[in-house]
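example protein:
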Amino acid sequence: MIVTTTDSVEGRRIDAYLGIVAGQAVMGTNVFKDFFAGITDILGGRSGSYEKELGKAKDLAMEDMMEEAEALGADAVVAVDLDYEHIGTGEKSMLMVSVNGTAVRLG
């Protein structure tokens, strides 16, 4: 499955637009990750635990979107857009990734 943020696939013709497909993933974080991320905010640097969770959430959301596209008979998903959100604070903190694009059949 070809997945691209562009509105076309170079060298390929789009024969059919099959519809918008989407995937979402919401990952809970815990108080320890929030605590260490807070320290990183103060001292500077990267938060490895948040980066790892964001990566997992992105992968899950992308997989969901591609499964939806495959169910429609798509060869590719074009015009893909990823959105990231941090929801809540403390123990109720969550990371959300949503992804959407247009499922297409290529010629």
